[in-house]
Structures
1.
Amino acid sequence: MTKKAVLLANLGSPDSTDVSDVRRYLREFLMDGRVIDIPFFSRCLLVNGIIAPFRAPRSAKKYKSIWTEEGSPLIVLTQKLVDKVAAETKLPVYMCMRYGNPTPQRALKKIREENPGIDEVVLFPLYPHYAMSSYETAVEHVRKLWEQGNYSFNLKVIEPYYNHPSYIQSLSNSIRPFTGKKYDHILFSYHGVPERQILKSDPTGNHCLKRDDCCRLPSEAHRFCYRHQVFETTRLVAENLDIPSEKYSISFQSRLGNDKWLGPATAGVLAQLPEKGIKNLLVVTPAFVSDCLETLEEIRMEGRETFLKAGGETFRHVPCLNLNDDWVKTIAELL
């Protein structure tokens, strides 16, 4: 019988809300060529000369607004998820962050030290959708460290599960209690990516973003297309919850820089919805499985303020899957 362990991989967080820790985290994160995919020298100038020095103090304030007594919400939730998945699967489960701590290198070494004779490590990226700047960079980074470390165990990677029935059911179940209350519209807000990354991920070179309905036309490009996958997740959840097409829409958040990104932008949509008679809004953030800066501060705080100032009346954000029992069972099923 194969002896295996599980490695859950999430994005990461600064070690603290100190400006120095946030600056260090931003540099590691933004110097990743799959996050800011421009030539190395230009990326160095942009990140080290402009973004990190000026963004770190502002980001530190944002992190302070969501930090808990236990620490970073993302780190705390992921560690608690490790414990729940271990209890559900009866397997040794570990965690790593693509940026910050605990590092994948440390996690792989710990797995080897604590599990002599192990045959396989299953890498479970906590990203439902494929994107260069999330799923791909996490997988390739761990794979590179695994290859360089000459580990005796095999490394198996869980594929994106954006349309897996169990994931769709878990996500739908997390939203369902909120649909019983009054709402005019559901906004599915996903993390944004530059359009050029969609084009780079297209293995055919001639499908993605070539026509308005490209995401609905069958293509091998869909395996790597973030845009198609978030559309598909939304469609399947809406069907599961019997939400009519006119009652929901999709937007993209967390933009960086002036390049053309997937749209429409969440901030702009939140400011415009009240003008269209949408006063009671429900927001879902399915690109994130753990609540973090982008959900707790960008949506639940800034997004709420934007919507209410524009004339909205009620704003409710559905928490991420976090530690939901359905989600833990989904992970176990995918493993």
2.
Amino acid sequence: MNTAVDASIDGDGRTRVSLAELIALRARVARVKLPPERVHTARHGQQSSRLHGRGMDYAESRAYQPGDDVRRLDWRLTARSGRLHTKLFEEEREGRLLVVVDTNAGMRFGTRARFKSVQAARAVALATWYAMRGGDKVGLIAFGGQRGQLRAQGAQR
């Protein structure tokens, strides 16, 4: 990446980072091939979870296998077929990324290459683009010299 081309008027890439540069990192994320998903259903910002509890959706029934939880037996199918069957459930949860930003003066220090704040902004931008590519919501909390909060949202703004 050529920093002379990527840096705009409001950022030099060493002491300040430009919004244009952070948005340009989206193209880098788009080129990365992600590993195949384990879930074979369509994802709409949802991820499978192993948690049991409220909000679980019935997925299917299958023949009982030793070690299955007897509390999940499908009694209706068992009565119809004469063989034990167990219910399979899946719970989907939205993924969320919470970015915590340190705005203390110590972040305006670094090496000859760049300030810690510039490198942190680039790392956060990459993590955010990856999360949004996966359909997750992103939120932000800032502490230190400047404080603020942005609730987790799925929109790309």
